[in-house]
Write a structure and sequence with these properties.
Length: about 260
């Protein structure tokens, strides 16, 4: 059951969850392995008729809604607002979730972009929805998740990940939630290049094939400082045998005369 709504209809070939009250409709069907597979996410939006500015936007946020804009596909930009709770629930599945916005009697297939949040509270402040088509590839960034424990780490090495987001191009319905790369085979000194990662069908990456993704470095050992040899003339050094110590605050005593005074 989705937050803020109730399941109102169930079908034999799958399950249809509906919550028109909270502004979110999610259709789901059973996959081949019995797992629930999301087919469509619909978010009910409202056209904004209030004046632009920080005060109207603040009133919207206090009422539980997020100001947003919808644009793309050579259509006019439309200012709307969407329920914050339901949008947060959708974005928890990743930024590349396909969302059908229902505005009045019109539907727009979109992706959420330029998601702005409060720097400390994490609350949604503003969202851009870009219109897309299922037959046209779009650009996106997909998180890269490394799986497995490298053999080199077990031997004391240090894993270093250099790529966390992968820029790709794909049709909206083919964009994966994340990419995975198995690194359990990496020894100390071994590296993983992007060309070794298998992409899903219909997905093309714009990274160079030889981009370094991860490596296992040797553990760093702290170097001990080398002993410094003593220098001549250091204060407090004992005088050499047969030498008289210099008088404090004066010259050394003169040598005795070898003959008697006449």
């Amino acid at each position: 059951m989705l937050p803020g709504g109730e399941a109102t209809r169930r079908r034999t070939e799958g399950v249809h969850f509906t919550s028109e009250k909270c502004g979110l409709v999610v259709c789901a069907s059973n996959g081949k392995n019995g797992r629930l597979m999301a087919d469509e996410i619909t978010l009910v939006a409202e056209a904004r008729t209030d004046a632009r500015g920080s005060r109207p936007a603040g009133r919207l946020r206090r009422s539980g809604r997020v100001p947003a804009v919808v644009y793309g596909l050579e259509t006019d930009t439309m200012e709307v607002s969407v329920p914050a709770r339901e949008l947060n629930h959708i974005l928890a599945g990743g930024a590349n979730v396909l969302i059908t916005l229902k505005v009045g009697g019109d539907d727009a297939l979109t992706l959420a972009r330029q998601v702005q949040r409060h720097p400390t509270k994490g609350e949604l402040l503003h969202v851009d929805f870009i219109r897309v088509r299922t037959d046209v590839a779009v650009s996106a960034e997909v998180p890269l998740h490394l799986t497995g424990e490298p053999a080199g780490v077990k031997d004391g090495g240090v894993l270093e990940q250099l790529v966390f987001q992968v820029p790709i191009e794909a049709k909206p319905q083919d964009i994966p939630h994340e990419l995975e790369a198995d690194i359990s085979h990496l020894e100390i000194g071994s590296q993983l290049r992007f060309e070794e990662i298998t992409l899903p069908p219909g997905v093309e990456a714009t990274l160079e094939p030889d981009t370094l993704v991860a490596q296992v470095a040797a553990p760093r050992v702290a170097e001990e400082p080398e002993a410094v040899e003593g220098e001549e003339g250091v204060e407090g050094e004992a005088p050499a045998e047969g030498e008289a110590p210099a008088a404090e605050g004066g010259d050394a005593p003169a040598a005795e005369s070898g003959g008697a005074e006449t």
